[in-house]
Amino acid sequence: MTQTTAPRTNLSAALNIFELIFHSAVRNIRKENRNAIVGLLSSILQAVIFVAVFYVLLTLLGMRRSAIRGDFMLYILSGVYLFLTHNKALLAVAGSGSSTNSILNHAPLNTMILIAASALSVLYLQILALLTILFCLHVFINPITIDQPIWAFMTFLMAWGSGVANGLLFLAARPWAPGFVNILKTVYTRANMISSGKMFVANSMPLHLLVYFSWNPLFHTIDQARGFIFINYNPHNSDFWYPIWWIMAIVVIGLMAEFFTRRHASSSWGAGK
């Protein structure tokens, strides 16, 4: 995986990069669980626990009647799973190829390959877990119907993409102030428990509260996902394009910041850690 090669053409160079990303992604998937099945089951179990917790919470708080008319499990899953995917992508990218990572001493690896591998490994596991959960819901509990499945899957990719974009910012800032960035990352992921809007229906929120949620691309993504999942819900207080513009802008800023950090970072910053 880390052997130095000299590609003769642009195509062979691209294939070499894709091969490195593939092997790095496999390494990330098997890093915590050497058995791929165990890793998949772990992702499924985490999502199931979150769904169960919010199912009980919303039922006890009497918020089930205020949910969208339709399958209540799909309503919870549309918020919880996108929230999980966003946070997992953020944490994976933020903890990936720092400029002071010793593995980068092995050519031809670079930070972009490690970032892409971390992001794709999360996407792979989350897609498999999502398909497994939907299959079990449809077969063993209650047949489910998604109004526009392709567009609903697009919002899933948007939740993943915004997590990758935000993770790039934390990754670029981590070598400069690792302790502060870790605290800020924890605060952001915890704040997303509320600001993502996964427990609320955006159309029923008063305007004076929307300002506390509308900055968050995940809030728009979850609300738009529910518009594509449920035939009788039309989102009015969110924008489909806002998360897309957010991803494009933050990815550019994050890559510029990561390039600046890579140019100025010293390998001694990571010593003793």
Description:
This protein has one domain (16-263). It has 273 residues and is mostly helical. The chain is globular, with a radius of gyration of 20 Å. The chain is built from nine helices and no strands. The chain starts with 9 loop residues before the first helix and ends in a 9-residue tail after the last helix.
Shape: globular
Over all CA atoms, what is the radius of gyration? 20 Å
For the secondary structure, the number of strands is: 0
Helicity range: 55-70%
Detail the poorly predicted runs: none
Our measurement of the CA-to-CA distance between the termini, rounded to an integer number of angstroms, reads 25 Å
Largest sheet: none
Oligomer: single chain
The number of distinct helices, counting runs of at least 4 residues, comes to: 9
Report mean pLDDT, rounded to a whole number: 80
Number of domains: 1
Beta-strand content: under 5%
Given helix and strand content, the structural type is mainly alpha
- N-to-C order of helices and strands: HHHHHHHHH
Fold topology:
Layout: H1 10-32, H2 36-60, H3 72-94, H4 111-141, H5 149-173, H6 178-195, H7 207-210, H8 217-229, H9 241-264
What labels would you give this structure?
single chain; about 270 residues; mainly alpha; 9 helices; globular
In short:
The chain is an all-alpha fold and 273 residues long.
